[in-house]
Amino acid sequence: MTLKDVKKSLIPPLSYSSMNEIIGCEHKYALRKVLEAEPDSDYSKETDAMDLGTVVHACLEACRHDLTGFKYVDVVEQIKEFPETLEPSKHGPLVWSMLRHYKDLHEDAGLQAAEVELELTLPKEFKGFVDLVLDDQEGGGVWITDLKTAAS
């Protein structure tokens, strides 16, 4: 094994999110990913908005973006994963509504899931996942979707 091979084995491929973090703040990336430093004790990344987005994402993954037959009880089960920030009675209807709207938008546009959580591996320095590839039934093309969550 050469020194070049050793160096290559020590540097994992970067995800798109990691590359953006490096571009935004190299120090933050180094603390989080390289040094694996613990966040400050008063820092909390748990917010309603982030957790709601995670629940919506988990629901869509669970049914592979085909909400036909998806039930409200499935939403409640996902919400139970966040007992400190989400309540089924309060947040369940919101998540259900978001999922129904998502389904209606895709059906109205003639889009159908073709691939879910598709891993991208080229070039070798890049590694990422695409949340969803949709076949455009009417336009004949494809849509590549990456779901993101942001707090207001």
Descriptive notes:
It is built from six helices and three strands. By secondary structure, the protein is an alpha+beta fold. Strand 2 and strand 3 (142-145) form a beta hairpin. Helix 4 crosses helix 5 (72-79) and helix 4 packs across helix 6. It has a three-stranded antiparallel β-sheet with strand order 1-2-3. Helix content is 46%, strand content 15%. The relative contact order is 0.14. The mean pLDDT is 80.
Secondary-structure content class: alpha+beta
Uncertain runs are none
Helix-strand sequence: HHHHHHEEE
How large is the count of helical segments?
A: 6
In total, the number of strands is 3
- How far is the first residue's CA from the last residue's CA? 50 Å
Strand order of the largest sheet: 1-2-3
Q: Concise description?
A:
This protein is an alpha+beta fold and 152 residues long.
Give the helix/strand layout:
Blueprint: H1 3-10, H2 16-24, H3 26-34, H4 48-62, H5 72-79, H6 88-108, E1 111-120, E2 128-136, E3 142-145
Antiparallel strand pairs: 1-2, 2-3
Helix pairs in contact: 2-3, 4-5, 4-6, 5-6
Give short descriptive properties of this protein.
152 residues, alpha+beta, 3-stranded antiparallel β-sheet, 46% helix, 15% strand, flat
